[in-house]
Amino acid sequence: MDKKKRKNKFNAVQTIIDGKRCDSKLEATHYSKLLIAEKGGAITDLKFHPRYDLEVNGIKIGVCELDFSYVQNGETYYIDTKGVYTAFSKWKHNHFKAQYGKEVEIWKL
Questions:
Q1: What is the dihedral of CA 61, 66, 70, 75, to 10 degrees?
Q2: Residue 44 and residue 55 in contact, taking contact as beta carbons nearer than 8 Å
Q3: What pLDDT is recorded for position 20?
Q4: Which domain, by its residues, includes 66?
Q5: Which of 90, 102, 88 is closest to 52 using CA atoms?
Q6: By the 8 A CB rule, do 5 and 45 touch?
Q7: How many domains does the chain have?
Q8: Does 25 reside within a domain?
Q9: Burial grade of 29 (CB within 10 A; 0-12, 13-18, 19 or more)
């Protein structure tokens, strides 16, 4: 029996950068740039796929996994790369903002 490789619904191609699996070439491109910025000292505390619990009234209802977070000039930035910005992603980002008081930046091409 021939097993077909499952395709990503948005035709994203997984890519390995610095030993980490990026879910798309777009994410890999941004991660590469952030690695260079961190090595050059422009940013610090780069995190890859940080996860944040989403809660309502103290009850965990889900998780918001972003692509990156980092610190620049004392401020933390929360980043998600998107080729297609779905309604569910928008909901998670809005919930993140309501719970943590921080905006999620959406990076495209």
A1: -50
A2: no
A3: 87
A4: 15-107
A5: 102
A6: no
A7: 1
A8: yes
A9: middle
Q: For the chain, how are helix, strand and coil distributed in percent, rounded to 5?
A: 25, 35, 35
Of all residues in the chain, the percent with pLDDT exceeding 70 is 89
Token reading at 6: 């499952």
Q: What pLDDT, on a 0 to 100 scale, did the predictor assign at position 57?
A: 95
- Which class for 104: exposed (0-12), middle (13-18), buried (19 or more C-beta within 10 A)? buried
Q: Is residue 69 part of a domain?
A: yes
Q: Which helix (H) or strand (E) holds 100?
A: helix 87-100
pLDDT in tens, 86-104: 999 999 999 999 999 999 9
β-partners of residue 51 are 65
8-state DSSP, 36: H
pLDDT in tens, 42-73: 999 999 999 999 999 999 999 999 999 999 99
